[in-house]
Amino acid sequence: MSWLAELLEQNSSDPRERLELGQQILSQLQISRLSSDSTLLNDFCDLVVQWLSGSNYKVALLAVEIIDVAIEVSADVISPYLLDRATALVERLGDSKQSVREAMVQLLAALANTPHCSPQAVLERISFGLNHRQWLVRIGTMHVVRVVLENRRRFVEPQIHRMIPSLCHLMVDPNIDVREVAASTLVVIFWHLGENVLSSIRKRQLIPEPKRCIGVKKFKMETFSFLDGSFTGSEKGVHQ
Q1: Whose CB among 64, 144, 173, 223 lies 3.0–4.6 Å from 178's, allowing a Cys bridge?
Q2: Is-contact 197 189, C-beta < 8 A?
Q3: SS (H, E, C) the chain
Q4: Per-residue pLDDT tens over the stretch 161-208
Q5: Out of 26-35, 78-87, 227-236, which region has the weakest mean confidence (pLDDT)?
């Protein structure tokens, strides 16, 4: 029996026992790759998703750490199995603990960079989160989109373009935090994909005029801030 199978058999519903078992799994992952056995990999992913979905945030954070290390040492074998569970991972973007939400954003962004798991596939799998009933999931999904766009822009333009109508709809979301993040996300998209995106939004009337004006103003303000910072930085170099 492999080390992973032995540890998986020790799974318990007790949070304290899960924390102890999680540390054992982490220690073993530091020195051993994951097996390529599909049954074991499915059981392993089921376990970490179960822990993520539980009510104990310490166990949830430990599950994220385990997945992070598993990706680091065995991305080639584990990534497809994690991608199959993208729905469950996205749900944790709405966790009540900010630390868990932030960890999940980084985890999903990291998954987009692993072998056998493309950024395009990750964006396709998480896109439903933009229309999720839980506002924190909508926000978390936008954060993942931004990180992936900033890291892998030339690979994900088609996926980003398909998300634009949903992002525009979030500009009139009932939740003010969602509206703010949607505006900022669209600004990032304008930055990376060009002002033709803005022209397309205007032409298709995807955002009500007042909201669109706010987005344009925000884009121009951030552009000016960036250029002003660059100019100031260059002047400092001249005078030093």
Answers
A1: 173
A2: yes
A3: CCHHHHHHCCCCCCHHHHHHHHHHHHHHHCCCCCCCCHHHHHHHHHHHHHHHCCCCHHHHHHHHHHHHHHHHHHHHHHHHHHHCCHHHHHHHHHCCCHHHHHHHHHHHHHHCCCCCCCHHHHHHHHHHHHHCCCHHHHHHHHHHHHHHHHHHHHHHHHHHHHHHHHHHHHHHCCCHHHHHHHHHHHHHHHHHHCCHHHHHHHHHCCCCHHHHHHHHHHHHHHHHHHHHHHHHHHHHHHHC
A4: 999 999 999 988 999 999 999 988 998 998 888 878 888 888 888 876
A5: 227-236
Spatial separation of the C-alpha atoms in residues 135 and 19, rounded to whole Å: 29
Tokens matching residue 6 = 């032995």
Could you tell me the domains of the chain?
10-96 (no CATH), 118-229 (1.25.10.10)
The phi and psi torsions of 54 (rounded to 5 degrees) equal -75, 175
- pLDDT greater than 50 at residue 232: no
Q: Which amino acid is at 98?
A: Q
